[in-house]
Amino acid sequence: MNSILLVDDETMLLDSLEIILSLNGYEIMGKAHDGVEALELLKSAQPDLALVDLNMQGMGGIQLIGEMKQHYPSIRILVLTTFYDDKNITDAISRGADGYLLKDSGKDAILGAVRQILGGVTVLDAKVMQRLTMLVSANAGGAGSSSADNSSTTSNSSSDHSTGASSADQSANRLTDAADPLTDREKEICVLITEGLSNKQIAERLYISEGTVKNYISSIYDKTGIHDRVKLTLALKGN
C-alpha cells in the first residue's frame, strides 16, 4: 500500500483528502499544516508521495519542496494549490515537484494524478501546462511566436521549417552542459517540445513517424541528462 503525506493549512481540506485517498487504498502517514510540521513528520517515516500546498503560513510549499528533494529525494511530490502564476509554477517544478494540480480539479483528477506520479509520470494541470507553454513562447521571442502561429495552420512550407530551426537553435543552445551536441533535427524537436506539442503532433509537423520522434527524444534525454519532458522544457527556456 502506498503511503501519502498531506500538507495544507486548511484542516477541512486535509480531512477531505484523507477520506478520499483512504477509501481508494492509500495509507495516510501524516497530515501537516505547514512545511516545518511536515519535516518533523518525515523524521520518523517517509511516504511514497506528498501532496503539498504552496501558500501556507510559516514554511510554504516552495521551500518545503526544496527541503524534501534534498533530504528525501525518493519522495514524489504533487503540488495541490489554487495558484498557477508563472513564478509558482516554475519555482515548484525547478525545485523538484513531480506534478502540479489545481484544487478545483476534482476528486477523479486528484486520484488520477496520484496514480500517475506514483507510476513515474509527471502530471500537470491543463491550465498549468497552458501557462507554462505561454511562458516558454514569450521567452523564445519573435521567432518562437512565429513558429507557434504556424502550428495552428495545416500548411507546412519549407520556410516554416527554417523558422522553427532558428528558434530551436536558440532554445537548444541553452543546454550548454550537453556532453554530446544535439543534431539539427534534435534541436528542431526541442523547439516543438517547448511549444507544448505531443509526440504525435511533432511527427505530423515534421513528416516522420511517432516512433522516430520517440527515438529522437530519447537521444535528447541521454545527451542532456534530463529525463523529464517538463524539466527539459524549463531547461530550454533557460529557467
Q: How would you characterize this protein structure?
A:
- This protein is an alpha/beta fold.
- Helix content is 57%, strand content 11%.
- The chain is built from twelve helices and six strands.
- The protein has helices spanning 11-23, 35-42, 61-71, 86-94, 107-118, 126-140, 142-151, 158-172, 184-194, 199-206, 210-224, 229-237, and strands at residues 3-7, 27-32, 49-52, 76-81, 99-102, 123-124.
- A six-stranded parallel sheet has the order 2-1-3-4-5-6, sandwiched between helices.
- Strand 5 (99-102), helix 5 (107-118) and strand 6 (123-124) form a beta-alpha-beta unit.
- Helix 8 (158-172) packs across helix 9 and helix 9 crosses helix 12.
- It is elongated and about 50 Å long.
- The two termini are 36 Å apart.
- Residues 142-168 have low confidence and may be disordered.
Shape: elongated
Cα Rg = 19 Å
Query: How are helices and strands ordered from N to C?
Result: EHEHEHEHEHEHHHHHHH
Q: Which blocks of ≥5 consecutive residues have pLDDT under 50? A: 142-168
* Sheet with most strands: strand arrangement: 2-1-3-4-5-6
Number of discrete helical segments: 12
- Major sheet characteristics: 6 strands, parallel
Overall mean pLDDT score?
80
Share of helical residues: 55-70%
Report the count of strand segments. Answer: 6
Strand percentage, roughly? Answer: 5-15%
Determine the structural class based on helices, strands and strand pairing: alpha/beta
How widely separated are the two ends? 36 Å
What oligomeric state best describes the polypeptide chains here? single chain
